[in-house]
Amino acid sequence: MTAAFTDIYHRLLEIYGPQGWWPADSPFEVVLGAILTQNTAWRNAESALASLKDVVPLDPESILNLDEETLLNSIRPSGYYRQKAHKLRIICRYLADNYDGDLANMETKGTAELRGELLDLHGIGPETADSILLYALNRPVFVVDAYTIRLFERLGHLSIDSSYNQVQEMFMKSLEPDPAVYNEYHALIVIHGKELCRKSRSLCSQCRLVEMCGYETAA
DNA sequence: GTCCAGGGCCTAC
DNA sequence: GTAGGCCATGGA
Asked: What is the mean pLDDT of residues A135-144?
């Protein structure tokens, strides 16, 4: 199993090349993007982020000081904008109160402790917390999403109803704890899923990954 | 018009 | 602990 997870990573890298995630100008921008892209096309999250950047400097205090109407209007393109405005304020308050508004001040804390803190915040679930840990803080935490479960179920490595934690554990037991690899691997899985294998198992069975790997997809 | 996107919360069982 | 409903915009 370990070899398969490593092999698939190298195949994806060969097919798609390095993705260089996360597209952002700062770690804090990663945090904002992680919330804005929840169940939302990145294009729309990006649009919201750009609008927000037009009206306020991207730091926790500035966003906390923004009036509600401006915040709502800025992030409207990302969808779920009322919920997301609330979530943004919550994590900004958390960062301002606990880390002086600077993610660099989180460096001294352990990954497990930080993950627990993030998960305790309203609006931060496992995928968002792990995206922040990996892409903003460079911690070796594997990010699992719907694409991950769909792809590896089709390749016969896990059950479609596997839980987030089960899948994450499987990846992290099979791979060396290297943030650079986790970073690229998750990005590649998402890019791969977008390209061809979003809906159809039959398309997935014909995709370049399966052709290159020679893996039989699960029935 | 329908489907879905780089989820997570709340409620009911 | 988990299944279902809900949140909302924009592109295919």
From this structure: 98
In terms of average pLDDT, the best of A4-18, A145-159, A205-219 is A4-18
Answer whether any strand B atom is within 7 A of the Cβ of A124.
yes
- Report yes or no: A5 and A142 within 8 Å, Cβ to Cβ: no
CA distances from A124 to A31, A112, A116, A154, A174 (A): 10, 15, 10, 28, 26
Specify the range with the lowest mean pLDDT, choosing from A48-52, A107-111, A200-204: A200-204
Which nucleotide minimizes the distance between its C1' and the CA of A39? B7
Q: How many Å from the CA of A44 to C1' of C6?
A: 20
Q: Does residue A23 reach within 7 angstroms of strand B, measured from its CB? A: yes
